[in-house]
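Model it.
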Amino acid sequence: MFKKKSKKYYFTIFLICLAIVTGLFFYFKSLVTKKTSILSDTLEEQVSKILELSTVKYNYTNVVSYRDNKKFNEMNIPFTSKGFLIKYSGYIKAGIDLETVEVNVKDKKSVEIVLDKPKVFDNVINEEDVYVYDERESIFNQLKIEDLYDVLVKEKKNMEEEVINKGLLNEAQKNAEEILNSFLQNMGFENIKILFK
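Modeled.
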């Protein structure tokens, strides 16, 4: 009878100890996960602030000529010519969208950053810098404000295509990678993976 009681007693103590050890294991495991999660969240905020610095701005100035004639059967009708020269300036900004940054801290030395590919944020022509020269019109074909507007819209699109072809988005990506690598290395990370999706 004493042996049965002592077996039950030891078994109960064993179960209690097992429950305590299991509870402590999961408690400390959740602390480690929370620490990594908090570090990832904090790092994500700092990365977002840094990416604002990696934005590339391209300033441009251009002169364009506009000519228009009324036509009949693909032939210009005399005395219906209109046109002007315009000089304009503006800027194009490209960078990384901060809303989509994902930071995954693997351990104290390893981190993975996932970013969207760079894109153009702004393409702005400064209205106060638009100068119109050499205006010509006829009573049969007068200049309208829409003519100027249409030319500027077309020029904005052309400039954007031109600077993208020259590597503006590649430059924005390179800037982001260099700044992030430097920042993360200063934080003590050695294995840094930066992915663009």
